[in-house]
Amino acid sequence: MAITLYELVGRDAARPFSPHCWKVRLALRHKGLDFQSATAGFTEIPGLEGGCSKIVPILRDGETLVAASFAIAEYLEETYPNRPSLFGGEGGRALSRFVESWSQRTIHPALARFAVLDIHDVLGEPDQAYFRESREKAFGTTLESFVADRADRVEPLLKSLEPLRAIVARQPFLGGDGPLFADYIVFGGFQWARVSSPFQFLPAEDPVALWFERCLALYDGEGAKVPAAA
């Protein structure tokens, strides 16, 4: 039975944008596993697979359902051990946990300050209402105010990327000569911004930008197949 990956989209079902879904999409390609994509908007997620999860990604593999990107990566690693490893061993799994923690506490909040209004604008009408209400409640301000100073926030973000920059300036991927799940974790955030928002923040010559281009090209250009927002 085919593997199904449930992914988050806006009005255009051909443009999945969730950072967490992109982690899993590349993890499946890394493992060489065929899958089909099933898409949903924010307000449709509670109805997926009998309400098994409030979030995507959700992976169905035969009779097995797994939700949340890291749990899915662990499932794939354990279920398909003879295919290329996502972690390169237990130490790599633990280090990937650190990378995920750093990414979600440093990169994702900064990117949200750039892209959240653009994300709202690509959603369908029911999802726009949900997204605006839930995010403005969380932020304590309007989406417009939340992104108003985004140009001033570029330099602090670039400085915060120095740990990543120092590594990918020396080697092609966080995983070394080839990517591991740690790369897909960080890639997901940048792909979220790329697909959702035309706002440019990475200088083309930045080692992080060059690493991101290498990630976009992986697996016959899996990431690049979805054009950047214009």
UniProtKB/TrEMBL annotation:
InterPro entries tied to this protein: Glutathione-S-Trfase_C_sf, Glutathione_S-Trfase_N, GST_UstS-like_C, Thioredoxin-like_sf
Gene3D superfamilies: 1.20.1050.10, Glutaredoxin
Keyword Transferase: yes
GO biological process: glutathione metabolic process; L-phenylalanine catabolic process
Annotated keywords: Transferase
Pfam families: GST_C_7 (PF22041), GST_N_3 (PF13417)
GST N-terminal domain span: 8-84
UniProt-recorded Gene Ontology molecular function terms: glutathione transferase activity; maleylacetoacetate isomerase activity
Name of this chain's protein: Glutathione S-transferase family protein
Keyword Transferase annotated: yes
